[in-house]
Amino acid sequence: MEITHVLKAFLVLFAVIDIIGGIPVILQVREKAGKIYPARATIVSGSIMIVFLYLGETILSFLGIDVNSFAVAGSLVLFFIALEMTLGIRLFKEDTSAPGLSEDPKVYSIVPLAFPVIAGSGTITTVLSLRAEFTRPEILVAIILNMVVVVTVLLLTNRIERMLGRVGLIVLRKAFGVILLAISVKLFAGNITYLFPG
Fold first, then answer.
1. Cα–Cα distance for residue pair 117/111, rounded to 1 Å
2. What gap in Å lies between CA 47 and CA 30, rounded to an integer?
3. pLDDT for 16
4. Nearest residue to 124 (alpha-carbon basis) of 111, 139, 110
């Protein structure tokens, strides 16, 4: 396990999860539910990522897809997520209204907060794509570190929003969008050669 690899994987996941940029959504969920349960949301979202980290390749193998092919597909998803963050446009539409669910705050802490706000399709794709570049233990540590950040942000949402302000949140989101854009290009370039070795 290399610390630099852990840090790289951490930054990629941090940019994709975008928990800081998701503060307005978190506040909206809390307003609707009355309160949220940070620990519950963190454990559920972290568990989803870890399950896909260890079982994702088995699923891909069953479908006849190799990790490098998935990494190329994942890099394209990351590219469009980065465009969303950088340009302020909406390309993916996630249903965060959770129709038909009860008003129980514990339910809202799982759907839509844990999934899809924290551990959405982009995050799951990223976890699987990172397997082309990093080892499972490195990605696992990166996931755990991100979950520490997530639970901290969920506990301090109001304070962070006041400290950064609306403009600060936008600037931070765009900055990480550019970083994620560069990472997606690197991931694509690093894996496309395996598909076309000639």
1. 8
2. 22
3. 92
4. 139
Separation of alpha carbons 125 and 53, rounded Å: 10
* DSSP sequence for the chain: --HHHHHHHHHHHHHHH-TTTTHHHHHHHHHHHS---HHHHHHHHHHHHHHHHHHHHHHHHHTT--HHHHHHHHHHHHHHHHHHHHHT--------S-TT--S-HHHHIIIIIIIIIIS-HHHHHHHHHHTTTS-HHHHHHHHHHHHHHHHHHHHTHHHHHHHHHHHHHHHHHHHHHHHHHHHHHHHHHHHHHHH---
* Residue 12 one-letter amino acid: V
- Where does the pLDDT of residue 103 fall: very low under 50, low under 70, confident under 90, or very high at 90 and above? low
User: How far does Cα 165 stand from its chain's mean position?
Assistant: 22
> How high is the pLDDT of residue 96?
47
Token pair 């949402």 is at which residue? Answer: 157
